[in-house]
Amino acid sequence: MRLTAKSFILDLLSTLGGRSMPVRALIAAAGLFRIEANSLRVGLARLLAAGTLERDERGEYRLGEKAQAVQHQVVSWRRLEEHVRPWRGGWVGVQAGDLTRAHRRQSERAFRFFGLRELAPGFEVRPDNLALTLPELRHELVTLGVPQRAAVFAIAELDEHAEKRARSLWDTRTLVAEYRRSCAELAESEQRLPKLPPSEAMVESFLLGGRVIRQLVLDPLLPEPIVDVAERRALLAAMRRYDKLGHACWRGFFSEYRVTSLRAPVDSKAEERLTA
User: Fold this and answer.
1) Residues of the chain under the 50 pLDDT cut
2) Domain that residue 130 falls in
3) Inside any domain, residue 96
């Protein structure tokens, strides 16, 4: 997988838990992914100008304020199952109304984060199984770009036709297949990493771990009986194990540059897409 300079920068800085990284470390890491130093510097300048990055007094870079709302969602993947509660059959609805082009893009991103799907034009729904109150959900959605005027409400019951349509909004067969595929890929890589040269292990763990984290972050967190929850939990457990291996692969690099890493990266291009 070929990374752009901007997506790589955001991926790597997403591991630092708000900490900063010197340019020389970013350049050295980028080289592992065949990203030239000049391209990296251009990417840094553009992200800094957009407010997605910040630079401290030492000239080191960290994720900026613009990226924080998305980053909050990204780093919560380890606690994924804490985000849900038993489903009693109700639904959550979001009525955003007519949106401008800018609001539509931001709103669609926010809806993806919370597994909402369009049941009717301008009307998004999901099962009411999130461990959030309606005011909390509304706050999160608005923080991510949904207009303030959006209405968020609970739906105790849908009519039979709407219920059937609502349950079909997610391709659950593909979801389960992707859970299983990612579990298999993590298991295969887990066996392979100790045998690879350090630089190759760094690249592989970064790319695969990042892709699976994005899969988890954007998972709609559907309840039984809409999806097989055990398959999602199996993937989460596998990714938690793999995350530790990924940290081990990068530990020497971060130690060399005196950078503290806390988290595995999000998928390549994901942070760029999600903060756009």
Assistant:
1) 264-276
2) 90-156
3) yes
